[in-house]
Amino acid sequence: MIIDLHTHSDLSEDSRAPIETYLKWLQRKRDLLPIDGIVLTEHRQWNARLDYRALEDKYGILILRGAEVETDYGHILLYGVNDEMVRRFDFADVRLNAQQVVTEIARLGGIAAPCHPGRPTIGLCEHYASRPPLEGVIAVEALNGGSRKGENERVADLMARHGYSGFGGSDAHLVSLIGVCATEFDRDIGDVEDLVEALRAGGYRPVDFRHRLRAH
Amino acid sequence: MALTFDRSILGQEFDHTVFEPVTKEDMLAYATAYGETNPIYLDEAAARSGPYGTLVAVPTFAFRLRGHHFMPKSLAQVGRAGLDAGKDVEFGEPIRPGDVLTASSTIHDIYEKTGRTGTMHFIVIRTLVTNQNGMRVAVIDQRMMFR
Amino acid sequence: MSRPRYFEDVEVGDELPALKLTLSGAQVRAYAETANMPGGRFYGDEEARAEGLPGQIAPGNMSMALFSRLLSGWSERGRLLRLNATFRGLVRPNVPLTFHAVVIEKHASDHGNFVECDLVLENADGERLVTGTATLQLPSRG
Fold first, then answer.
1. What is the spatial distance between Cα A36 and Cα B16, in angstroms, rounded to a whole number?
2. CATH number at residue B134
3. C86 part of contact set with chain B, CB < 8 Å
4. CB-defined contacts A:C, below 8 A
5. What is the pTM of this model?
């Protein structure tokens, strides 16, 4: 099963992609982008009331939700977000304590996975160069569709040294960039609980579809 | 350094400027400067048979408008050293030679986030442009980035 | 005037002909002058470095104007209703640039026929310097 684990809809202030337009695009591009699901990881926010089951049924594409938060070790994707996590952390704070995020999100039933680790300033690689590694990190985003030359390549060394698993995501902020990078899971993912369990257990890898489209 | 400000300024007009009438010369100079090729913006004969029936300015001509005040007085400390982070624009009535445009600006939003170059503060300036008939010409949300 | 492009002729997924160009420093200065943004970072390398930048840059407005040129060239009778852009990297003169647009949605209503496009400006290294979207109203054959 192939899921784009890192996407932004127009709920993120720098995205202009309506969710339904993402789904229509994926349906149309199915032969090039075999994406079975997406995770909406909006910037610095969480709205527990949002429900996309009607869209899932209409388009036959799994829609899960997470968040992308900002910490003192860079940006981190949160999967398995619940009300307790929102009470514990102000998702709008751009100076969250990364170690607390990783530890507490795991304790509260989710998983916190650093994204675009190879990116300057907001990626883990740069912080690990001068600071102790975070405890409890299981997986990092090995392949990010919005990264620049060299940024994804930097992550392989990080993963090898720290034993991290790697996943992929498009980091799409535009409809036409959804699904260009994603994660292939050996098991089926039906809901967020399945996703969290799978990310902890392993049995997945990043997949790159950028070569199938016009070079962006 | 965190950007401190009084949130009551959000939505309050800080600039209201009425501009000199638009000239055909300014319209053509602007379009030529970035290499516009559509003849309805460049040639009066082509414009007459085009969708507007007359020469009109290219849509982004509205970006030229510079009001009296760039920022509210209470945000004067940010100065003019920011970088343009982007714009969201809705275009309405086309601009024609002789139009007298008015621009009214407010601070629409202020937020911060982190990126490749560090922590960034964003100030979103919303400018409503109308013509002499009160018709909406453009609504421009400009995001200015400061450190 | 070239043949007009009608709403019925457009398909989601259509890629508009890319606009490839390299801006000269003089062109950037000329645009900045007509756009009432003279001097400073848009004038030359020295002036831009004095503002803490690596060298002369093109205004974000110029990138948006060039996107509007791309759209206008594709559909001369199309009406640009919305245009947005996020400036993610500095656009420099003397660097090959490619402006891309692709149709991501089309919809018809009583108010007209509309096409939505994604916009991407990239440099020769494939770095996305500007991303955005546009909404165009196109004429109908019928």
1. 51
2. 3.10.129.10
3. yes
4. 44
5. 0.95
Residue B104 has pLDDT above 80, yes or no: yes
Mean pLDDT of chain A: 96
Q: Yes or no: is domain A2-212 CATH 3.10.20.30?
A: no
Round to whole Å and give the CA distance between C67 and C119: 8
**ipTM score of complex:** 0.94
pLDDT of residue B70: 84
Give the number of domains in chain B. 1
Q: Give the closest-approach CA distance of A26 to chain C in angstroms.
A: 11
Domain that holds residue B102: 7-22+67-146
What percent of chain C stands above pLDDT 70? 98
How far does B119 lie from chain A, in Å, by closest CA?
A: 8
Whether the CB of B2 is below 8 Å from some CB of chain A: the reply is no
CB contact under 8 A, B86 and C30: no
Quick check: is B84 in a domain? Answer: yes
pLDDT one-digit tens code per residue, C66-113: 999 999 999 989 999 999 999 999 999 999 999 999 999 999 999 999
Q: Chain C: nearest CA to A7, how far in angstroms?
A: 15
- The three state secondary structure string of chain A is CEEEEEECCCCCCCCCCCHHHHHHHHHHCCCCCCCCEEEEEEECCCCCCCCCHHHHHHHCCEEEEEEEEEEECEEEEEECCCHHHHHHCCCCCCCECHHHHHHHHHHCCCEEEECCCCCCCCCHHHHHCCCCCCCCCCEEEEEECCCCCCCCHHHHHHHHHHCCEEEEECCECCHHHCCCEEEEECCCCCCHHHHHHHHHHCCEEEEECHHHCCCC
> In terms of Cα–Cα distance, which of C55, C49, C58 is closest to C27?
C58
For chain C, which chains pass the contact test of at least 3 CB pairs under 8 Å? Answer: A, B
Q: What is the pLDDT of residue B83?
A: 87
In a domain, B76, yes or no: yes
CA distances from C37 to A41, B14, C33 (A): 37, 21, 6
Nearest to A125 by CA among A102, A168, A133, A112: A133
Q: Which domains does chain C have, with CATH numbers?
A: 11-23+58-138 (3.10.129.10)
Torsion of CA A92, A97, A98, A104, to 10 degrees: -90
Interface of chain C toward chain A, CB-CB under 8 angstroms: 12-13, 15, 84, 86, 100, 102, 104-105, 116, 118, 120, 122, 125-128, 131-133
